[in-house]
């Protein structure tokens, strides 16, 4: 049967409240009978081998359980008018998900994955029609692909890891077929999947919440109520006490709001140290006190890496708190600053030891918390030995859980079933460019994507990006500030005032808008602690029955009532805007509009289009 799919490959085509399994174009099973269980046996003609492709249990609630044996591949196809969402973050963050082409690859948290995977991954895929597929067990044994194109797409998986300093934004690639809507799941171990059939996207999302849950508290309120400022994009690693104070005074001199100042890379003399570099920061406690007088809580950048030269490194090695080779020797991990030992987070003793170290620094200096960087699975060598054996992506869960448990005033960036944590999850380092390929547009699409896999507390990366070899134009800086101002949190580093008077004036206006919108953001965040509803929502959330809402990637809702339509295209001063059904009022002019399209709506450089829903 040359040219046919492999024996263990089946296709599922959901249609309304029903679904059917196909093989070679023939219907294997109709999954519309409530309360029945069917076992599907696939037998190749002329072959004595029998393969159980799936065991399907139909529940009264309109969902099925699909048990895939090791080696089984399930292809799920939806009509071209519907769309896929979910899985998590990618370097090129398209929205909806079906705009990409991704060969089946292991679910795994990555810092710049070879195929484009990002820091947060989740085994949940939802459709605009209310169909969803979910694995209750999040595992790298499940491989997922979207509209795979064959060998060319599969070749990405063999690429080596490169750091953000060498990265590009071209992966995942875009789908060559705009009508393709195929999710491919391959099980390398026996895998149980839920097929959820809800009435619409929000209904499917709420059904999926039963697996991963939602936070019961919001992050530290100052992180949501006022801008965060960080030294990284402005100074990179060239920091000291004098520069930090210069930065803080400049923020206040230019009348910008802000409640938190984060001191990023190189406050330590060696990575893994839990004391300030005495040469760069001779009086750390005094510095933190001065920042407090200026109205800033101080946070510090920290990673799980312990390098040579830090006193903590030798201590951790002696105590057995680092990951090891099979012979018991420390196993250096490769990261963007070279090689270093990796804290063994699977060990309760190692976690307690590290928490004590960080809390001692906090008590000695008065800092408020930490920015927990790294922690992705790719930093844990595949053959490393840990205190408790884990899949590598479990390391990401342990790192974010550690942050949330001990230091909630701060942020993490890696996620692996971390939806319950009351902490900000930062998007991956953005490039100072415009597009979905890790530029400005991806700030919006990634916030939407992460919200739909249960991460409500998303921190956009720094306004204007990280300036990794890119020049940040005044226009990009303004549009980036506008796009982030209504989001749950905003983070500045590149000083707007250094890009000219217009950028300074407009930037301050939207930083102030961020503060003015704090009650709305806090209310939306608190709603997430009650029912898991994401604070930042796509248009399809507000109008799940409207096909035109399903693919809108450049607008978002803050809560139920504030619609934001930022300009994400260079040189654009007018844009099309879609308003959900109902009456809406322009936030600035108070002009009223009915739901539907506003074509070529004015959006001059100083204006962020926003609309309030009328009762």
Strand content: 25-35%
- How many strands appear in the DSSP assignment? 32
Structural class, from secondary structure content?
alpha+beta
> Helical element count?
14
Cα end-to-end separation: 62 Å
Q: Given the C-alpha coordinates, what overall shape results?
A: globular
Biggest β-sheet strands, sense, barrel: 8 strands, mixed
Radius of gyration: 25 Å
Walk across the major sheet and give the strand order.
3-2-1-7-14-12-9-13
Task: Look at the structure and give the mean pLDDT.
Answer: 90
Tell me roughly what share of residues is in helical segments. 10-25%
Q: Could you name the ranges where pLDDT drops below 50 across 5 or more consecutive residues?
A: 1-9, 23-28, 32-60
Structure description:
The structure is a single chain. By secondary structure, this protein is α+β, with helices and mostly antiparallel strands. It is built from 14 helices and 32 strands. An eight-stranded mixed sheet has the order 3-2-1-7-14-12-9-13. Strands 25-24-23-22-18-17-16-26 form an eight-stranded parallel sheet. Helix 6 (284-293) links the parallel strand 17 (260-263) and strand 18 (297-302). The protein is globular. Residues 1-9, 23-28 and 32-60 have low confidence and may be disordered.
Features:
615 residues; alpha+beta; eight-stranded parallel sheet; 27% strand; disordered N terminus
Give the topology, please.
Blueprint lengths: L8 E7 L2 E6 L2 E5 L6 E7 L6 E9 L4 E6 L4 E5 L6 E7 L9 E7 L10 E11 L3 E5 L6 E5 L4 H4 L18 E2 L7 E6 L3 E7 L3 H12 L8 H5 L2 E3 L1 H4 L5 H13 L6 E4 L20 H10 L3 E6 L2 E2 L4 H9 L13 E3 L2 E5 L5 H18 L3 E4 L21 H13 L3 E3 L11 E3 L13 H12 L6 E2 L14 H11 L6 E2 L8 H16 L1 H14 L4 E2 L1 H4 L13 E3 L3 E3 L9 E13 L5 E11 L7 E4 L2
Parallel strand pairs: 1-7, 16-17, 16-26, 17-18, 18-22, 22-23, 23-24, 24-25
Antiparallel strand pairs: 1-2, 2-3, 4-5, 5-6, 6-15, 7-14, 8-10, 9-12, 9-13, 10-11, 11-15, 12-14, 19-21, 20-21, 27-28, 28-29, 29-32, 30-31, 30-32
């Amino acid at each position: 049967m040359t040219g046919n799919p492999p024996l263990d490959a089946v296709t599922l085509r959901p249609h309304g409240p029903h679904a059917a399994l196909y093989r070679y174009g023939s219907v294997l099973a109709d999954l519309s009978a409530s309360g029945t269980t069917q076992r599907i046996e696939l037998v190749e003609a002329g072959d004595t081998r029998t393969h159980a492709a799936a065991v399907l249990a139909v529940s009264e609630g309109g969902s099925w359980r699909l048990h895939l044996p090791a080696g089984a591949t399930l292809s799920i196809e939806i009509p071209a008018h519907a769309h896929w969402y979910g899985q998590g973050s990618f370097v090129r963050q398209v929205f909806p998900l079906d705009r990409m082409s991704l060969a089946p690859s292991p679910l795994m948290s990555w810092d710049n994955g070879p195929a484009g995977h990002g820091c947060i991954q989740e085994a949940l895929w939802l459709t605009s029609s209310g169909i969803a597929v979910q694995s209750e067990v999040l595992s790298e044994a499940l491989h997922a692909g979207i509209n795979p194109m064959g060998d060319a797409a599969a070749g990405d998986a063999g690429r080596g890891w490169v750091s953000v300093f060498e990265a590009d934004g071209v992966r995942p690639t875009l789908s060559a077929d705009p009508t393709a809507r195929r999710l491919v799941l391959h099980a390398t171990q026996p895998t149980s999947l839920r097929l959820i059939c809800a009435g619409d996207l929000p209904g499917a999302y709420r059904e999926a919440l039963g697996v991963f849950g939602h936070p019961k508290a919001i992050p530290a309120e100052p992180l949501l109520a006022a801008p965060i400022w960080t030294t990284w994009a402005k100074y990179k690693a060239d920091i000291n006490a004098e520069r930090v104070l210069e930065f803080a005074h400049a923020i206040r001199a230019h009348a910008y709001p802000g409640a938190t100042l984060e001191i990023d890379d190189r406050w330590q003399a060696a990575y893994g140290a839990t004391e300030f570099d005495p040469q760069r920061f001779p009086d750390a406690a005094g510095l933190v006190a001065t920042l407090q007088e200026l109205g800033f809580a101080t946070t510090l950048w920290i990673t799980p890496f312990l390098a040579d030269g830090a006193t903590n490194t030798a201590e951790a090695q002696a105590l057995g708190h680092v990951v090891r080779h099979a012979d018991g020797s420390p196993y250096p991990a490769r990261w963007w600053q070279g090689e270093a030992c990796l804290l063994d987070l699977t060990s309760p003793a190692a976690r307690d030891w590290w928490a004590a170290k960080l809390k001692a620094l906090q008590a000695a200096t008065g800092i408020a918390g930490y920015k927990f960087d790294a922690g992705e699975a790719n930093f844990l060598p595949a053959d490393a030995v840990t205190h408790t054996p884990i899949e590598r992506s479990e390391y990401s869960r342990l790192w974010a859980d550690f942050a949330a448990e001990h230091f909630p005033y701060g942020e993490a960036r890696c996620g692996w079933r971390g939806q319950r944590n009351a902490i900000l999850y930062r998007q991956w380092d953005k490039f100072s460019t415009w597009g979905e390929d890790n530029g400005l547009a991806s700030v919006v699409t990634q916030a939407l994507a992460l919200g739909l896999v249960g991460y409500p507390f998303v921190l956009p990366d720094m306004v204007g990006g990280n300036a990794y070899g890119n020049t940040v134009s005044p226009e990009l800086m303004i549009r980036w500030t506008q796009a982030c101002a209504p989001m749950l949190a905003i983070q500045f580093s590149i000083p707007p005032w250094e890009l000219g008077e217009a950028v300074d004036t407009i930037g301050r206006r939207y930083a102030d808008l961020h503060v003015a919108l704090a009650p709305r953001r806090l209310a939306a965040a608190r709603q997430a602690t009650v029912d898991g509803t994401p604070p930042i929502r796509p248009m399809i959330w507000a109008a799940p029955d409207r096909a035109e809402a399903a693919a809108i990637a450049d607008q978002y809702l803050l809560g139920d009532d504030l619609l934001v339509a930022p300009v994400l295209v260079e040189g654009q001063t007018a844009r099309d805007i879609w308003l959900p059904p109902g009456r809406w009022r322009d936030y600035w002019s108070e002009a009223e509009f009915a739901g539907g399209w506003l074509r070529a709506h004015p959006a001059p450089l100083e204006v962020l289009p926003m609309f309030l829903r009328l009762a």
